[in-house]
Write a structure and sequence with these properties.
Membrane topology (chain B): Multi-pass membrane protein
Keywords (chain B): Cell membrane, Membrane, Transmembrane, Transmembrane helix, Transport
Structural class of chain A: alpha+beta
Number of domains of chain A: 2
Order of helices and strands of chain A: EEEHEEEHHHEHEHEEHHEHEEEEEEEE
Transmembrane segments (chain B): 12-34, 76-96, 108-129, 141-160, 185-209, 240-261
CATH topology of the largest domain in chain A: Rossmann fold
Oligomer: heterodimer
Largest sheet of chain B: none
CATH topology of the largest domain in chain B: MetI-like fold
CATH class of the largest domain in chain B: Mainly Alpha
Shape of chain B: globular
Radius of gyration of chain A: 24 Å
CATH superfamily of the largest domain in chain B: MetI-like
Largest sheet of chain A: 6 strands, mixed
Helix content of chain B: over 70%
CATH class of the largest domain in chain A: Alpha Beta
Distance between the termini of chain B: 38 Å
GO cellular component, one term (chain B): plasma membrane
Number of domains of chain B: 2
Strand content of chain A: 25-35%
Domain ABC transmembrane type-1 (chain B): 72-262
Strand order of the largest sheet of chain A: 6-7-8-3-9-10
Order of helices and strands of chain B: HHHHHHHHHHHHH
Number of strands of chain A: 19
Number of strands of chain B: 0
Amino acid sequence: MSFLQLQGIEKYFGEHRAIKGIDLQIEKGEFVVFVGPSGCGKSTLLRLIAGLEAIDGGKLSLEGRDITQLPSSKRDLAMVFQSYALYPHMSVFENMSFALKLAKAPLAVIKEKVERAAQILNLTPYLQRTPKELSGGQRQRVAIGRAIVRAPKVFLFDEPLSNLDAALRGQTRVEIAKLHRELGATTIYVTHDQVEAMTLADRVVVLRDGQIEQVGSPLELYDRPANQFVAQFIGTPQMNVSTLAQMPVTVRQQAPAGAVGGSIGLRPESVTLQPAGQGLVDGSVELVEALGAETLIYVSTPGGAQLVARQNTRSPLHAGDRVGVSIALEQAHWFDPQGRVVNARD
Amino acid sequence: MSRHSHVSPALVVRTLAAWAVTLLLFFPLGWLFLTAFKTELQAISVPPLFLFEPTLANFHEVQERSDYLLYAKNSVVTSVLSTLLGLAIAAPAAYSMAFFKSKHTKDILMWMLSTKMMPAVGALVPIYVLAQTSGLLDTQLALIIVFTLSNLPIMVWMLYSHFKDIPHEILEAARMDGATLWQELRLVLLPLGMGGLASTGLLCLVLSWNEAFWSLNLTAANGGTLATLIASYSSPEGLFWAKLSAASLMAIAPIVVFGWFSQKQLVQGLTFGAVK
């Protein structure tokens, strides 16, 4: 039996069915990321696990014990909130020791645990300060510290990096990954940022509209998306998806039977550009984004397909240039008219 | 640059207007203060006297004629107890409305406020009869109950707007940290809501102290507050302005002093949530 088990979890807000029967098994020590667009229910699902919202159907069990109806305070989970939610009237030390104090741990133990956590998170000089005297990044670390001091069964992170600026976000992401490696704690992490999901997760759960679209390791999702939604949600820039009708006949002929009337998906790295006349089809350059290490070139074809090509070299192309477009068809993803993947390789 | 270049005509007009309004508001109090130290003859002299030899005779007489301390004690007891009782009822109500909002929270709040729109005299007869049949006429308890009930809507509203500004997640964090409901309230909500509780309490203390309608109608010589004391100088033997002023001054002095020291909290409490 797995460590944390969700069986048919349901949540209603009034008439609205926000979470539609989620089944998920999480193993001990695993780092699982819930990802999806705004309103997909990922934060709600986390709050259901935390016990901050009541579960309306299904069963939640931790280490084989049913905790569906247990209050948050008895679940032995720790949560890091998006807004940090530090206690403003307490010092950093008091913030981090609050849970242990409530659990009536001996003072010496509290002191030792808080000091160790502070050391891990570089917070030792700030222990006597109050949250308002700290920077955003430091507050974030205190929030994480408050969680790790308790050594809970599961860590829950609710978009913990979205209030940080870009540079700090990248840095904190690396720290969280490192922390997870050191502590080996079971972690559920909610984000709308697929880069965070890809870099942190052992397994990613892609949610849409209160349902799981796909569960898998980051590269599984990238290489073998189950449907067009996942294919386009994972990866930047987005996967190119064009209807087969927009594609030249040679492409249409290669399509597996199930994809008739559907569409083809191509990662930007599966599209390469040649001099005009040498590719599968000619197109015209709409926009060139030179990012330094890579260049993104937006091309439109006469059939109406809009494609982005990614290359690791600088490009002499300009908007309006004619180019030949080559497609690595063996890397193509085929979708049926409903957006489900059709496997060409079988 | 000379100092004069800073003084614009608009500033002069505004300053004069501000002084005029301030004097207008302060005049009755100032006049009350002066009259309290005059003799009865000086008090009604025309033209009014601004310079005179002050006397404390009125204060003596007020204390001789009626037991000031009894009324003062009643005022303290009724306003303090009604405030504490009110806070004990309003705080949980405001907590649940601020942190466990339902579809009808706004309606309930509006309904509470709407009860303040009914003139108090509309409820006079039933409340008088209730007090009479339960033997509470002319007791402190009657006033404590009525003050509490009439202040509750304002207390709930004020506390609600204070609590609403406390981020929800902080209480949730406490729950995740293993706090029981009681610990969550005592260790997190109470310290964070202290400002709101204090300013709400202060305002209700002042309102109860100054309340006259119910004191006059439900109490007399035993349970009466200072408002009743003042009223007793107004009619029966004609108007004795100097003594009336002395009694009024003695009645309002404690709460004015109290208000002076807590004005910061009071103003903060009244404007909290309004500008944010």
